[in-house]
What does this fold into?
Amino acid sequence: MNSTPKNKYNIIKSIVILSGIAMLLSCENSMKEVQSLTTNENLPLQQGREVEFIFTDSTKIQYRAFAVEFIETDSEEKEMLQEFPKGGKIISYDKGESVAWEIKANYAKHYPKEELWELRNDVVAKSADGKTISSELMFWDHTKQLIYSNQYTRIITSDGQVLEGSSFSIDEDMNDLRLKQGSGKVYFEDKNEQ
It folds into this structure.
């Protein structure tokens, strides 16, 4: 077979053209996918490490949140979200600005528009009077003034009694506890004894 420079040139030219066509045909990204990758909507609005947030009402501190790491995002499809991927702590204050309770978790999300906190992974809430509530998932709805969970919960009261249940809810002041499918030992004081 006689190969001339012209034939080699035509073969190389054909390979380059076929490769280009193959690359164009193999591209499956739609314009929306490309635009979503190039826009800033997936980038955080704010982020930081070792941060503290103070939430006030009429110059009185309502609660403070501390985080190891903080990421705030916002997009047209989803509402603003504040994420605390390495966990943190929330401290709530009563009207006299004394600590009312605190909640620690290894992961948290805050939905500012709904005033809802989602706390996950080894969540422990402690009231000022010594009550401790533990669960793997807890929600604090600041609008409804309610802390609740639909997962297994363990409660240790201030006098050492241990209660367990499949879910719970308690008011923001941590007084009115409601426990579902509860079990545990409860001690009552007999006020009729002399």
Notes: The two ends are 120 Å apart (CA to CA). Helices lie at 5-26, 31-38.
